[in-house]
Amino acid sequence: MPPEASTTEGARSRNATGGASSAAAAQHRRGARPARPYHQPRHRTCGPGVGMVLAPAAAPTTPLVPPQKLRWIVEPRCPPDWSTQLERCEGGFFHSPLGLEFACPGGEPLFAELLSGNDEVVGVAAGVRWSCWLRRRPRHYYFPTLPALVGPALTDEVVADLPRALRSLGAAEVVFDSFDAKWEPTSVGPEAPPRQEYVVPLETPLSQVVGRLRRDHRRHVRDGDREGWTLGTLEGEDARTLLSDVLGAAARRAADRGDRFAVQIPAAAMRSPAPGLADAWGTRVFAAWDGNTPLAALVVGWANRRAYTLQSGSTAEGYRRSASVWLNWRVMSAFAEHGFRTCTLGGTSVAAARPEDPAHGLFLFKSGFGSQVVRCQGTRWTFSRTHLRVHHLARWALDRFRTAKA
Fold it and tell me: The whole model's pTM is what?
């Protein structure tokens, strides 16, 4: 879903795909340009031995090899040791199968491993591909985040080898978004604006974390505790119903501020039974309650002991009482008790830091938890400009037809 679909305290960021990204991914599925522009790197110095191979996953060990001896292997099925590789390569939720289901539903999943000369895994990536009406063969590839890499593999040149390998399978474009990304490409032009995410470390004692909360946030946490609010989880239709209510209310408030967005609730958020927090990856719907009255709800995804807030919102009463502050704090506390290292509160555009920006309220909310502000940037490779130009012309013609018909 994986455009910024995260809504919190009536404010929302308009990233190119941040609490989650199905809207932007849907554009790729139709062969459209991404919601935010990407840049094709000017330099792609790819080393020898890079290629597209179908093979089983390799055993994990620490790599110490030159980049020119690395190669990407791509598989349509998730390797059985994927959780081990995510841990080893510092991957996160958007590298997991469930992250793909949440970020870009409907696409054909792909799992890529970067292997050294002796078949040791030194990087992982996960994405989807789609066919379009121009060609039956998949031409559009989308990755909700950048590859997770270890050792000497952290280079633009090595990562560029993956799109080049996908090109051999017929890719017209390969887009990497930047959700929960741990590094930033250097070969990016000004037409690919950065975004920023808000990361709360959970390994620090919570008594110290609460001291870093903004004063108003601390007050809202105390208010919820004093009034006896409770934290609960929801599954299936109960989760869908409450999320529809709170996200719908958040969308109406955002529209009043000129920051309109569509409500989308992925099926991945409502699995029943919901996975346990000890599982390798999963999603959970949490809710704040005052007795039997729901006040706020949020969806959190996780993998490799890193949590990521995907969607959140409040009822009208919960918004008035700032229930999302209490709910986020209690959810972060629960993840900390289960040994999680970080919780990322989604992202915003860089412009959200400016008071005049429509998403400034979301910036204040997320930064108010003492978050570390992390710059994130995606990138894009275009291999068939003619193919994409035909899509552009078709969309233009369709828009003109709809306008004339209206």
Answer: 0.78
DSSP 279: S
List of residues 6+ apart from 7 with CB closer than 8 A: 19, 247, 250, 251, 254, 261, 311, 312, 313
Return the bridge partners of 380, or none. 175
**Per-residue pLDDT in tens (0 to 9) along the chain, 406 residues:** 333 334 333 333 333 333 444 444 444 444 433 333 222 222 222 332 333 332 333 333 444 445 557 889 999 999 999 999 999 999 999 999 999 998 887 889 999 999 987 888 999 999 999 777 556 666 789 999 999 998 755 577 888 889 888 988 878 888 899 999 988 887 665 556 789 999 999 988 877 888 889 999 999 999 999 999 999 999 999 999 999 899 888 888 877 777 677 777 777 777 778 888 999 999 999 999 999 999 999 999 999 999 999 999 999 999 999 999 999 999 999 999 999 999 999 999 999 999 999 889 899 999 999 999 999 998 888 766 665 565 566 565 555 556 665 5
What is the residue whose two structure tokens read 């990304």?
A: 181
Query: Are the CB atoms for 359 and 14 separated by under 8 Å?
Result: yes
398 backbone φψ class: left, alpha, beta (φ>0; ψ -120 to 50)? alpha
d(C-alpha 310, C-alpha 344), whole Å: 9
Supply 164's token pair: 């080049």
Provide CB contacts within 8 A for 275, sequence distance 6+.
281, 282, 283, 284
C-alpha distances (whole Å) from 103 to each of 6, 31, 96, 127, 131 are 12, 17, 10, 9, 18
Query: What does DSSP assign to residue 402?
Result: H
Q: Please give the domain boundaries of the chain with CATH numbers for all domains.
A: 22-188+377-405 (3.40.630), 195-376 (3.40.630.30)
The continuous run of DSSP H or E covering 399 comes out as helix 385-405
Strands 293-303 and 306-314, sheet pairing: antiparallel
Within 13 Å and on the Cβ side, how many CA atoms surround 187? 14
Question: Around 50, how many Cα atoms within 13 Å sit in the side-chain half-sphere?
Answer: 23
Which residues, in sequence order, are CB contacts of 402 under 8 Å at separation 6+? none
Torsion of CA 153, 158, 160, 165, to 10 degrees: -120
Burial class (CB in 10 A: 0-12, 13-18, 19+), 43: exposed
Alpha-carbon torsion angle 199, 217, 350, 379, nearest 10: 30
